[in-house]
Design goal:
Helix 3 runs parallel beside helix 4 and helix 7 runs antiparallel to helix 8. The chain is α/β, with parallel strands linked by helices. It contains eleven helices and 15 strands.
Length: about 375
């Protein structure tokens, strides 16, 4: 598009001079000249047409001088609008004031049109650069808005109503939390009723961060939930989900998954651990047991892999705490990790708390440990207590 130049000068012969000198650029559609004869007339034109690129303004004019016009232009707060001020050679005081007030450059009368042409070209380079930056800024703002919506959607697909099973509230206590390190995260948790006596639950951590991890997270959660609701055992659920994820995985993405089925009547938990952090069982007496480290691989890498299955029992008053490595690998300003020992010490002192309070206490302890250090990974927790 043509560069729109507004020439403001009470000397009428300047209009003919500019149109004659820049006739080739005008004819080619590179420059588009408009003319005003004082600052007030120019300001009126600027308010009507807001797409001017360059103002070529004389300083000494009737009704509104160039310095007053420059002040009004600054109030428009348009960094892509450049002002080139014109005055007599001996009028260096006003020229200096104009430059201090934000003028891009100046020219002296009688105007050297060759020099003015170079000044205009220099201004155009700055204008193009600023417009590119503005466009990139608008794009970033748009992306930021999209990420905010994506974060809301991601949070919405995770269960957030506690207690989740009011009809079984006298038998089981469940709470969970996911805090993403970025706008969207790769961790997820879920739980759902399979039948009257069984509840499926899962916690997972997708490799990587940001939007790719969030998309893979949504796919993984949907697969595990849909498969688990078919009332298959944990090993079948993860084996089937792994086969589908392995076919669709891009950039070698994978997910660590702990999926279990809890028996409301007996407290028995059957589970499959696909490379996830082993959870803790917090006993009612304050002792803790850590489940064995999984020998199975992570999900989403190798198709036709058969995952194993284990069982254990929650006694009355016992709490199962599942977490992602954003908890134990949280670092403080000294680059030290929160670690399993600190987590275990906290669990021993929270054997009598309910699930929500336990999760709140873990998050608060991690935050206190990290201090001013930036959160480096998603922090997700899921707690189940047999009442």
């Amino acid at each position: 598009m043509a560069v729109k130049i507004l020439s403001v000068d009470d000397e009428l012969d300047l209009e003919l001079l500019l149109t004659q000198y820049f006739r080739r650029k005008i004819r080619k559609g590179e420059y588009e000249f408009h003319f005003a004869h004082n600052g007030l007339e120019a300001l009126t034109m600027l308010l009507k047409e807001k797409d001017f690129d360059i103002i070529l303004s004389d300083i000494n004019m009737p009704e509104m001088d160039g310095l007053s016009l420059l002040t009004k232009i600054n109030e428009m707060q348009n960094p892509a609008l450049k002002c080139i001020m014109v005055s007599a050679y001996g009028d260096m005081g006003n020229i200096r004031q104009a430059m201090n007030n934000g003028a891009f450059d100046f020219a002296t009368k009688p105007i050297d049109l060759d020099d003015l042409s170079l000044t205009i070209e220099k201004a155009i380079e700055q204008i193009n650069y600023i417009k590119e930056m503005q466009q990139e800024h608008h794009q970033l703002e748009s992306i930021k808005g999209d990420l905010a919506v994506a974060r809301e959607i991601q949070q919405a697909i995770l269960p957030r109503i506690f207690p989740p099973f009011p009809e079984s509230a006298h038998m089981i206590d469940i709470a969970a939390s996911m805090n993403a390190a970025k706008d969207v995260g790769g961790d997820f948790y879920d739980f759902f009723r399979i039948d009257d006596d069984h509840i499926g639950f899962v916690i997972a951590d997708v490799s990587g961060k940001g939007v790719p991890a969030a998309i893979f997270m949504a796919v993984s959660r949907t697969l595990v939930r849909a498969t688990g609701l078919r009332d298959v055992n944990p090993s079948e659920c993860i084996t089937y989900s792994n086969d589908l994820l392995s076919e669709e995985s891009a950039n070698s993405m994978f997910v660590t998954v702990f999926y279990g089925i809890y028996d409301l009547k007996t407290g028995e938990v059957s589970y499959t651990n696909a490379g996830h952090n082993p959870p803790y069982v917090v006993k009612a007496d304050g002792s803790i047991n850590k489940l064995p480290v999984s020998e199975d691989i992570v999900a989403g890498i190798v198709k036709d892999y058969h995952f194993s299955e284990e069982t254990f029992r929650l006694e009355r008053g016992d709490t199962l705490l599942l977490y992602t490595d954003g908890v134990t690998e949280a670092i403080n300003t000294e680059e030290k990790e929160y670690g399993e020992e600190r987590l275990e010490a906290l669990l021993r002192n929270n054997s009598q708390t309910d699930c929500q309070q336990l999760i709140d206490n873990v998050k608060a302890d991690v935050k206190a440990f990290a201090g001013e250090a930036e959160q480096s990974d998603d922090i997700t927790l899921l707690a189940i207590k047999r009442l």
